[in-house]
Design brief:
Layout (H helix, E strand, L loop, with lengths): L3 E5 L4 H13 L3 E6 L6 H5 L9 H6 L5 E4 L6 H10 L3 E5 L6 H14 L3 E4 L6 H11 L6 E7 L11 H4 L7 H17 L4 E7 L10 E7 L5 E7 L9 E5 L3 E4 L5 H6 L22 E7 L2 E7 L7 H13 L7 H20 L3 E2 L2
Parallel strand pairs: 1-2, 1-3, 3-4, 4-5, 6-9
Antiparallel strand pairs: 6-10, 7-8, 7-14, 8-9, 10-11, 11-12, 12-13
């Protein structure tokens, strides 16, 4: 079966680092076109690629089967809707949309047209998250009572990209970093009954939220905290999970983004493998008990691989298999985000409806 001819809507960091290399190498896809309004940067790396100058030109090409919407957040709904109406399958960079209403409309449109629609939640394929998921899945910690997931950075300066620092739909840390770990928390623990959020601005001159703490409340004895800040120079564990039997702590150490930014191509036995450290500090720390025996040991991380996402997309389009990230999961994430902003505004717990 012929590869799926795929178009990317921009060639900034997202297109250049997180999409093009994987689509170029995956035998099930043809990196067919990359939209650039005036430049020709893509051709320097992918000589055969077409470079449409507008979304309309990109979508008018009947050969295109899949469109990657990786433009600024506020355009996701509009671009994805136009792509679906043009009879294309669509992958949307996070966030899925900027509102629940938009997300539901896109999901309904995809269902009505018979086209595949998915959200690019690549952090499900990080080595650290995959390792946490494995530990929880194997029941090492017993019944989970508390979890804290961080996505922190030390970036006190404002972004040079104006759309990231201008107040409006889809801006701020919740839509940037938070959406990754909201998705992960939902995958690990399910939909909470209520949410409480504290969102604020810390950087001098910033006009968008750059600090977040969102607490998921469950009917069982479980609290899950989602936290992020741009003022964390010394990183603490990204995952801290406590259960009735023990605890698991894991740093954020997946190397894929660093490898990709440096120009490395994905693949090979060492791809997505966390670097070995003499003190094993990158490995997760498991402190628990099994069969009455106390265990405190470092756990090697699983291999990360963003290519697995596109494996799933290919199987969904060509063989009717389930999508790696469904529109329904994207809607769930948007429901949490809207509840978080409502909670921050009203300074109260918001029940998820």
């Amino acid at each position: 079966m012929a590869p799926i001819k795929t178009a990317i809507c921009s060639f900034g960091l997202s297109g250049r680092v997180f999409h093009a290399p994987f689509l170029h190498l995956h035998p099930g896809f043809e990196l067919y076109s990359i939209m650039e309004r005036s430049k020709d940067l893509a051709k320097a790396t992918y000589a055969a690629v077409r470079t449409p100058r507008s979304l309309e030109e990109l979508l008018a090409d009947k050969a295109v089967g899949l469109v990657i919407v990786n433009t600024p957040n506020y355009t996701h709904y509009d671009y994805a809707k136009k792509a679906l109406l043009a009879d294309k399958h669509v992958v949307i960079e996070k966030p899925f949309a900027t509102t629940v209403v938009e997300a539901k409309e896109l999901a309904s449109l995809a269902a009505a047209s018979g086209k595949k629609l998915s959200v690019f939640q690549n952090r499900r394929y990080d080595s650290d998250y995959k390792t946490v998921k494995k530990i929880l899945g194997e029941g090492w910690l017993g019944k989970i009572v508390e979890a804290e997931i961080h996505y922190d950075r030390y970036v006190p300066a404002l972004s040079a990209k104006a759309h990231k620092e201008t107040p409006g739909p889809g801006t701020g840390i919740v839509y940037d970093l938070g959406i990754h770990i909201i998705d992960q928390a939902l995958q690990l623990f399910g939909m909470p009954e209520a949410v409480f959020a504290d969102l604020d601005i810390m950087r001098p001159g910033s006009q968008v939220e750059d600090y977040m703490e969102i607490v998921f409340h469950y009917s069982s004895v479980l609290r899950v905290r989602i936290k992020g800040s741009y003022f964390v120079r010394e990183a603490i564990p990204a995952y801290t999970i406590h259960g009735t039997l023990g605890s698991f702590l894991k740093k954020r150490a997946d190397p894929q983004e660093v490898q990709l930014v440096a120009g490395a191509l994905p693949g090979g036995k060492d791809w997505g493998t966390e670097p070995a450290e003499e003190d094993d500090s990158q490995k997760g720390l498991l402190h628990t008990e099994k069969d009455g025996q106390l265990i405190r040991e470092r756990v090697p991380s699983l291999q990360g691989n963003y290519l697995e996402y596109y494996d799933g997309i290919h199987e969904a389009i060509r063989n009717g298999q389930p999508l790696p990230v469904t529109p329904e999961q994207g809607i769930m994430t948007m429901r949490i985000i809207e509840a978080a902003y409502d909670s921050n505004k009203k300074k109260t717990l918001i029940v998820i409806k």
